[in-house]
């Protein structure tokens, strides 16, 4: 890039054509005319209401297990996070990216080891083609270790984001219990495997793009973490690969999209799938998405759950630390979509 500190948010308002370093090779473009459209029905919608009722809980566990097996994605409603908090987070993200450039750049870094940073694309130090995205990434668990690094502008940022992070973590921990049970494991199996746990989040900002057919917000990839909870605004952009076709997932107000990450695929010994997804952009509207990435600690040892390994189902992956996995993921720069193959055993 001409300047690592030239944020896309500022560039996009001044140009009529996509700069060369954002243009994908012809065979690596979105082919937007071939994307299947969806009203959301292509992604299972699971109602979490009634978890306290044993029979309803069993039904929800079965729904989640089926979605993790067949889709790798599902939506949730009645999740316990107030609509007012969702509205506040989306407004906060827009307000941050509308701040003057000089104010936003106080948070800028192209060093991926920084636990709070504003940056652009994916990895500006190494990539050859940039993505049409700016992002603010935050580590947020334990909150007291990171909150003092977070932006102070907008003024309510730290307070509002801390409340949201806490609420999402409570939601994730409930989901991990349900997913553990759906695999036939002890309710706390996944929780115990994560060591000290890790939680990150991002505010992804995708400005309008004059030629969206030439570039990506993010190209097709699987998430390297355990599970992702996605909050998005009302502008479509998320697409999921289903049966060899890209399907556009139109947003459903006040729901979250949950997607299974690579670590969950490993723990489940390939019963549950981490599915390719991507973000595309459009020429008319900005888009905001707020993913929360829940993950093991770097020292956590990840491998197939022993109860899911037998003669008929040999271990697909070797054991590894999450720190080792994430380093390989980052170095691949999304270039090969998924790096799980590196960790497969010779038995498969």
How do you describe this structure in short?
This protein has 348 residues and is α+β, with helices and mostly antiparallel strands. The protein has nine helices and 14 strands.
What does this structure look like?
It is built from nine helices and 14 strands. It is α+β, with helices and mostly antiparallel strands and 348 residues long. The protein has one domain: Sandwich (Jelly Rolls). The strands form three sheets. An eight-stranded mixed beta sheet has the order 1-2-10-7-12-5-4-3. Helix 2 links the parallel strand 1 (45-47) and strand 2. The longest helix is centred in the middle third of the chain and has 26 residues, at 157-182. The relative contact order is 0.17. The model is unreliable at 1-5 (pLDDT under 50). It holds the Pfam family 2OG-FeII_Oxy. It catalyses: salicylate + NADH + O2 + H(+) = 2,3-dihydroxybenzoate + NAD(+) + H2O. Residues 197-296 form the Fe2OG dioxygenase domain.
- Using only CA atoms, what is the Rg? 20 Å
Measured distance between first and last alpha carbons = 41 Å
Structural class by helix and strand composition: alpha+beta
Low-confidence stretches: 1-5
| Sheet with the most strands, sense and barrel status | 8 strands, mixed
Q: Which strand order spans the largest sheet, edge to edge or round the barrel? A: 1-2-10-7-12-5-4-3
As a percent range, the share of helical residues equals: 25-40%
Tell me the overall shape. globular
- In N-to-C order, the SSE pattern is HEHEHHEEHHHEEEEEEHEEEEH
- Mean pLDDT over the residues: 91
Query: Might you state the CATH topology name?
Result: Jelly Rolls
Q: What's the helix count?
A: 9
Q: Would you identify the CATH architecture?
A: Sandwich
CATH superfamily: B-lactam Antibiotic, Isopenicillin N Synthase, Chain
Number of domains: 1
